[in-house]
Design brief:
Chain A: This is NADH-ubiquinone oxidoreductase chain 4. The complex is a heterodimer. Chain A contains 19 helices and no strands. Chain A is mostly helical. Classes of the chains: A mainly alpha, B alpha/beta.
Chain lengths: 460, 493
């Protein structure tokens, strides 16, 4: 673990001491190097469930895929931000990359934490660099509102979690995940215990986000600069899913009347947010709402506490992280050229950017869960586990899949196909950097087709 | 309730030092104290209500009236053409926040705007098919204006549309042109009738038909209306649909440029506007508005806006770099009072000498004027009226045609600018080849008001659909100026 964490912390001297001409090159190279080394975690040698451990940090089959995703994403974020940060003064560029690296450090420590309280502290700590990125480098005045929503929704959800964790510490004497996994089933016989159960989950449901508490996400995703959107969509949402999965082991067995409302909200959210996507005109808002839709499926899968549910959730989280981040990068390339997020004005792009249209095509196909991509595998596993939980859910999940296919195709056809309008004839061609960014996003998704067991978690 | 508590204070609490007694003894002092208390509570409540949601207080003091930092379409010019385009763009965008449109207008009082200084006439008697179609659509729009521009819970729009029609008089020399135009107009659906001098005399006995060979009268969809009402109707409806309005002056454009080589071998810069700098009135503060499309609907100032982009500054660079041939031309309008003048069914009379006249209101007032000769264009630095022009040029021609006008009194006069297209006096709609994202909708040379609803729809279709769907305005494209192929009207006033 330290072999990844130490180079990430050494990114800070790299950022501040490199000469201006080499700043972006060296930071990208160093973060790419860290990403490649993190791939070694995927080789699962231990039988004991947790490896690479020291007293505070360890990896297990649940956290490994998310850790690799986090490390993989940092070079991609730096690649994506290079263009829009170019006109800024050098120290501001350094601050920006510092914030990204700081976020990375907190995320690695969060996913690798063995003690739930350390996970909680890192979970909260990730809010700060993200807030600074959104409010300082966002594009519009609404970013202040977005930052406020983002911060206070998450905080309001996570303060009950702190109380619940401290209660757990006093009753069971430990907060280490290694020990808490041994079952001591929680008897939810009193109101206090019920509230404790809810308190453990609410923070993660707000972060996922669950449909009823999802309002922060469209605002934050849209107002953030591209690196902020990427990290929000790809990793920060998964913090919620990961936290839920960790905490679920001690919330066993789930009482029907407590999981029922959350599962129904999640499933209903898939349909509702999918329908919003169908009539959305702003490209980034469409991708943000599609994130809510996919994460609703993940939340429902985790709440059933079955092995297929967990496996489906993890694989959908990883696949969605990569694909959503890819879509945000594509939307940003279009935005940098036309200065508009409206799909009505930046349409018919296939005629002028054919290779980028290929990336759009693959990303949208992945978004609509085309077989054999891992998005479908995850969705199928969750749909099957929901069917097992209750046969009626097939109506909601089936309709959700249909609507997802609808809006993904709508996004592709609106932005790429059709006649190119006259006012976007003189746009700059795509840079190699942007093509590289897309390949680095989409190649892992395609490679996961051949070895999905890397991402299936404990239950493989 | 607290009054009872405060009116009686025990003696031991009251201080012994000689000062005003704690005990409130007089009625007036008591009232003062409680009025103060009430005022303080009210002040406290006002301040606290700022923290409640729904209030627009913000800790960051922004200049009021600043435009948003980003807009999809920026329309330069808040006249009737600009607001019409804004309205149609929002109508065609399917959802409310789909397209962010910003209209930038320099003058909040509209004191020099061509729209409000116009006579407000609308006619279909043109010779170009596009002009006829534009006016026909606009007349249909204005007859059903509340279906288009009605806002719920607001008063209905009243344009005061007088359907009296236009009456053109032709001399021997130009009678054949009038007949050709009449055929074109009838083919396109305009309701026009040709009158011989005797029919003219029968219908309008107050007219002196000497020298008139043929007359053409518009029977339907022609007349005059109140331009201020139309402008405000468009503006009210557009603002209700979410169009942003900003009063400020466009001072500069920030562009990105790429070099390109034309077929002739010249090297030109193709520009793409990234930001529009909008300067606040009476202030040095400006806001760069990031935008995708800019529409130049600035009327008489369109040429100035175009030159900010370097269009036409170096014509030898390439044939593509032709300047926008729109400049302001001043025209005078005189209000005259003649109690024995023509009656209420007087059409908008336009004589072959160039003088025109129409009824204004019901009190025997008329509006009249004339286009000056090319060589005698008035000075455009201000909007002062030249009364000598009326005395020397207009009056005698008017009195010759309408004998009752020999006895009249000029009650007032004003002047306004035409956005005059010096090339061929017809509108310019479309993109410039050297600026990738600036659309033009200007140069209508006095017909902008009557054609504005249709032009707005055409520009919105061009932007959002890629081509014209309702009325084909490809003939009005800028390339006719580059290729030096004018499309001329046969009759103009």
């Amino acid at each position: 673990m330290l072999k990844i964490l130490a180079p990430t912390i050494m990114l800070f001297p790299t950022i501040w001491l490199t000469p201006r001409k080499w700043l972006w090159t060296t930071t990208t190279a160093q973060s790419l190097f860290i990403a490649f080394i993190s791939l070694t975690w995927l080789k699962w040698t231990s039988e004991a469930g947790w490896t690479c451990s020291n007293p505070y940090l360890a990896t297990d089959p649940l956290s490994t895929p998310l850790l690799v995703l986090t490390c993989w994403l940092l070079p991609l974020m730096i690649l994506a931000s290079q263009n829009h940060m170019n006109p800024e003064p050098i120290n501001r560029q350094r601050s920006y990359i510092t914030l990204l690296a700081l976020l990375q450090t907190f995320l690695i420590m969060a996913f690798g934490a063995t003690e739930i309280l350390m996970f909680y502290i890192m979970f909260e700590a990730t809010l700060i660099p993200t807030l600074i990125i959104i409010t300082r480098w966002g594009n519009q005045v609404e970013r202040l509102n977005a930052g406020t929503y983002f911060l206070f929704y998450t905080l309001a959800g996570s303060l009950p979690l702190l109380i619940a964790l401290l209660t757990l510490q006093t009753t069971s004497g430990t907060l280490s995940m290694l020990i808490l996994q041994y079952p001591e089933s929680s008897q939810l016989d009193s109101w206090g215990n019920t509230l404790w159960w809810a308190g453990c989950l609410i923070a993660f449901l707000v972060k996922m986000p669950l449909y009823g508490v999802h309002l922060w996400l469209p605002k934050a995703h849209v107002e953030a600069p591209v690196a902020g959107s990427m990290v929000l969509a790809a990793v920060l949402l998964k913090l919620g899913g990961y936290g839920m999965m960790r905490v679920m082991v001690m919330l066993n067995p789930p009482p029907q009347e407590l999981t029922y409302p959350f599962i129904i909200l999640a499933l209903w959210g898939i349909i509702m947010t999918g329908s919003i996507c169908l009539r959305q005109t702003d490209l980034k808002l469409l991708i943000a709402y599609s994130s809510v839709s996919h994460m609703g499926l993940v939340a429902a899968g985790i709440l059933t506490q079955t092995s297929w549910g967990f496996s489906g959730a993890i694989i959908l989280m990883i696949a969605h992280g990569l694909v959503s981040s890819a879509l945000f990068c594509l939307a940003n390339s279009a935005y940098e050229r036309t200065h508009s997020r409206t799909m009505m004005l930046a349409r018919g792009l296939q005629a002028i950017f054919p290779l980028a249209a290929t990336w759009w095509f693959i990303a949208n196909l992945a978004n609509l869960a085309l077989p054999p991509l891992p998005n479908l595998m995850g969705e199928l596993m969750i749909i099957v586990t929901m069917f097992n939980w209750s046969p009626w859910t097939i109506l909601l999940t089936g309709l959700g899949t249909l609507i997802t296919a609808g809006y993904s195709l709508y996004m592709f056809l609106m932005s790429q196909r059709g006649q190119t309008p006259n006012h976007i004839m003189g746009l700059q061609p795509y840079h190699t950097r942007e093509h590289l960014l897309m390949v680095l996003h989409l190649a892992p998704v395609i490679l996961m087709v051949v070895k999905p067991e890397l991402m299936l978690g404990w239950c493989y | 309730m607290w009054r009872k508590l405060f009116t009686s204070v025990p003696a031991f609490i009251a201080p012994k030092v000689p000062c005003r007694s704690f005990k409130i003894s007089s009625r007036a002092a008591e009232k003062d104290f409680f009025k103060d208390l009430d005022a303080q509570l009210k002040a406290f409540w006002d301040k606290a209500s700022k923290a409640l949601p729904g209030n627009d207080w913000s800790p960051i003091e922004l200049t009021p009236g600043l435009p948003p930092e980003r807009a999809d379409v920026v329309i330069v010019g808040g006249g009737v053409v600009g607001w019409s385009i804004a309205y149609w763009l929002k109508m065609k965008a399917r959802s409310r926040d789909g397209l962010r449109v910003l209209v930038v207008e320099k003058d909040s009082t509209y004191s020099q705007a061509s729209t409000v200084l116009s006579c407000g006439g609308i006619r279909q008697q043109f010779s170009l098919k596009e002009n006829i179609q534009l006016s026909l659509f606009s007349a249909h729009f204005m007859k059903n204006i509340n279906n288009y521009l009605g806002v719920i819970n607001e008063d209905p729009v009243d344009l005061q549309f007088n359907h009296s029609g236009y009456l053109f008089l032709a001399s021997e020399k130009s009678a054949h042109i009038m007949e050709e135009n009449y055929n074109t107009q009838r083919c396109l659906g305009a309701k026009v009738a040709l009158l011989s001098p005797s029919q003219l005399k029968e219908r309008f006995p107050w007219m002196n038909t000497e020298g008139v060979a043929l007359a053409s009268l518009g029977l339907e969809n022609e007349g005059w209306f109140d331009p201020w009402s139309l402008l405000n109707a468009f503006r009210r409806k557009a603002v209700s649909m979410g169009v942003y309005e900003c009063f400020g002056e466009v001072t500069a454009f920030k562009c990105a440029a790429d070099l390109a080589i034309t077929p002739d071998g010249d090297v030109v810069n193709i520009k793409r506007i990234k930001y529009v700098n909008v300067q606040m009135p009476n202030s040095l503060e400006y806001q760069p508005v990031e935008c995708t499309i800019v529409i130049n609907a600035a009327g008489a100032n369109s040429g100035k806006i175009a030159s900010m982009l370097g269009i036409g500054l170096d014509p030898k660079e390439s044939v593509f770099n032709a300047a926008l041939p729109v400049e302001p031309r001043k025209r005078f309008v005189y209000v005259v009072h003649c109690p024995d003048g023509p009656g209420l069914d007087t059409p908008f009379l336009i004589d072959y000498t160039g003088v025109y006249c129409r009824r204004e209101g019901l009190g025997g007032n008329y509006i009249t004027g004339m286009s000056p000769e090319e060589t005698e264009e008035p000075d455009i630095s201000n909007l002062d009226v030249d009364h000598e022009f009326f005395q020397e040029k207009v009056w005698h021609r008017l009195a010759h045609r309408v004998p009752a006008f020999e006895q009249l009194k000029v009650s007032s006069a004003w002047a306004g600018f035409y956005d005059y297209n010096t090339f061929d006096q017809n509108g310019i709609v479309g993109l410039h080849p050297l600026v990738n994202n600036m659309y033009f909708a200007t140069g209508f040379s006095g017909h902008g008001l009557q054609q504005s609803p249709a032009v707005g729809l055409a520009v919105a279709e061009l932007i959002l659909d890629g081509s014209y769907k309702t009325i084909d305005l490809r003939a009005f494209d800028l390339k006719r100026i580059l290729l030096q192929e004018p499309i001329m009207e046969s009759n103009i006033v």
